[in-house]
UniProtKB/TrEMBL annotation:
Taxonomic source organism: Planosporangium thailandense
Sequence ranges assigned to domain Lipid/polyisoprenoid-binding YceI-like in this UniProt record: 14-183
Pfam families for this protein: YceI
Name the UniProt record assigns to this protein: YceI family protein
Family stated for the protein in its record: Belongs to the UPF0312 family.
Superkingdom of the organism of origin: Bacteria
């Protein structure tokens, strides 16, 4: 098996996220007993991969807060409101990388500035390189998957409701999930 760096050397270049084959999702505990999963359906992103020196790679993503989708219209409306994402005042969630560190043959830590509701904090997302392929249309595609847990209160997303049985309605910890397919620019 070839090492990631050898494989990546052939993939050096600029890429654009393919929104129809990329998922930017999240998981939150609900009522302390179950999980609610959701995703953002509208986003754009780009990356530069430097196969010879992965530390020079970089990525940016801009997410439309209004595109939040948990498959429940009432809940989505509440998440878009000032109680949570305040999308009218803060229509975008952004991530801009500041560092990339190779941690294994096919693993990387992508560190960057995550901005939610106007609050910017550094976050490091461990990613796994899933491979590369040329699709039937001649596009070179690369795949990466990663996830990280953040505390939503760190970003000013503080609304909650107490439960009669103790605990709260929505967990403070939110897991962000990234399943990325990116197409190499011509």
């Amino acid at each position: 098996m070839t090492t990631l760096t050898a494989d990546l050397a052939t993939l050096t270049g600029s890429y654009t996220l393919d929104p129809s084959h990329t998922r930017i999702g999240f998981v939150a505990r609900h009522a302390m007993v179950t999980k609610v999963r959701g995703a953002f359906n509208e986003f754009e992103g780009s990356a530069y991969i430097d196969g010879a020196n992965p530390a020079l790679s970089k990525a940016t993503v801009t997410i439309k807060a209004a595109s939040i989708d948990t498959r429940n219209a009432d809940r989505d409306g509440h998440l878009r409101s000032n109680d949570f994402l305040a999308m009218d005042q803060y229509p975008e969630i952004t991530f801009v990388s500041t560092a990339v560190r190779q941690t294994g043959d096919n693993s990387f830590d992508l560190t960057g500035d995550l901005t939610i509701k106007g609050v910017t904090k550094p976050v490091t997302v461990p990613f796994t390189y899933e491979g590369a392929a040329t699709d039937p249309f001649g596009n070179v595609r690369v795949g990466f998957e990663g996830s990280v847990t953040i505390n939503r209160k760190d970003y000013g997303v503080t609304w909650n409701a107490a439960l009669e049985t103790g605990g709260v309605l929505v967990s403070e910890k939110i897991t962000l999930e990234f399943e990325v397919s990116a197409i190499k620019n011509a």
